[in-house]
Design goal:
rod-shaped, mainly alpha, 6 helices
Length: about 160
């Protein structure tokens, strides 16, 4: 009788551990989704600000076209094209800073851009950490053997996250 109770207790503990592991993995996936949503909103704000900068009166037509195009591509890109579009916007903004004196004329606008860039770096770090933690958890044998991840896609980072902003 006591062997039966110990066996039943072991099974219950194992079931509890599986449930705990599945819940932990679910929370990690939620954290990835939340960090991506935050990162996406900051990227959208950066693209909108780039569009505003493109339409400042001191911006020449070529720069206006370059910035407007890069901002539009970044805002409208599909997820598969997102990295290229965001990298293009980063390069366009970097070029504007290096090649013109507009940042000195509009320090408040470029101060906001600096603030967004700082927030972007933080959001990227948080997203990358969330993805890494989730990927490591999903590699565990128990998670794979019992398919505790369900049908959730494996989270990934995007190449633009490695860009120097």
């Amino acid at each position: 009788m006591s062997g039966f109770i110990l066996g039943l207790l072991a099974i219950l503990i194992f079931i509890w551990y599986l449930t705990f592991s599945a819940n932990r993995l679910d929370r990690l996936h939620h954290r990835v989704e939340t960090s991506w949503a935050n990162l996406d909103s900051i990227l959208q704000r950066r693209a909108a600000l780039a569009g505003e900068i493109a339409h400042l009166k001191e911006v020449d037509p070529a720069t206006n076209l370059l910035l407007t195009s890069a901002a539009h591509q970044a805002r409208e890109a599909e997820i598969s094209e997102r990295s290229e579009a965001e990298s293009g916007l980063s390069e366009a903004l970097k070029l504007l800073r290096l090649e013109s004196d507009i940042p000195e004329i509009y320090p408040e606008v470029f101060g906001e851009l600096d603030s967004i860039t700082d927030r972007l770096r933080t959001a990227i770090a948080i997203h990358q950490e969330s993805v890494t933690a989730t990927q490591k958890r999903r590699e565990k044998l128990l998670i794979r053997a019992f398919r505790l991840a369900g049908r959730a896609p494996l989270p990934v980072t995007y190449p633009f996250e490695d860009d120097v902003l």
